[in-house]
Amino acid sequence: MTRQQVLDQYFMDARHKLIDLAAFLDRVDRSEGDADFRLDAFRTALKHLAEKKPHRAKRVLLSFSDPTMKPLAKATVKGATGAWPGAKV
Questions:
Q1: 87 class by beta-carbon count within 10 Å (0-12 exposed, 13-18 middle, 19+ buried)
Q2: What gap in Å lies between CA 81 and CA 64, rounded to an integer?
Q3: How far apart are CA 62 and CA 47, in angstroms?
Q4: CB atoms < 10 A from the CB of 41, how many?
Q5: Contacts 24+ apart (CB under 8 A), 37-40
Q6: For position 85, what pLDDT does the model report?
Q7: pLDDT score, position 30
Q8: Per-residue pLDDT tens for 30-89?
Q9: Span 19-33, mean pLDDT?
Q10: pLDDT at residue 89 in the model
Q11: Residue 56 CB partners (closer than 8 Å, separation 6+)
């Protein structure tokens, strides 16, 4: 596809997602209390998104991912949180 074709096909969907992300951050900023590791990972992912380098999707995904290779002996929580608590910001 040409760049124009990509823009024609995907721009409105990407625009919608970006506005949704802005609304999420507005809600977070207006809320009380402390943030946790998920917001740190989210902000790191946003930095990768803004970089004009190849493989942004990979870097965004890795900013949420657990890089360790050793399996846990036992799960510490019941469900997934969407981000790794040990990420360095």
A1: middle
A2: 10
A3: 12
A4: 21
A5: 37/83, 37/84, 37/85, 37/86, 37/87, 38/81, 38/82, 38/83, 40/83, 40/87, 40/89
A6: 86
A7: 97
A8: 999 999 999 999 999 999 999 999 999 999 999 999 888 988 888 777 777 889 888 765
A9: 97
A10: 56
A11: 48, 49
**Cβ-contact 89, 64 below 8 angstroms:** no
pTM: 0.82
SS (H, E, C) the chain: CCHHHHHHHHHHHHHHHHHHHHHHHHHHHHCCCCCCHHHHHHHHHHHHHHCCCCCHHHHHHHHHCCCCCCCCCCCCCCCCCCCCCCCCC
What pLDDT sits at residue 74? 84
**Distance (Å, whole) CA 58 – CA 48:** 9
Q: Which residue has the tokens 């870097």?
A: 59
The gap between the terminal CA atoms of the chain, to the nearest Å, is 36
Q: Which of 66, 75, 63 is nearest to 39 (CA)?
A: 63
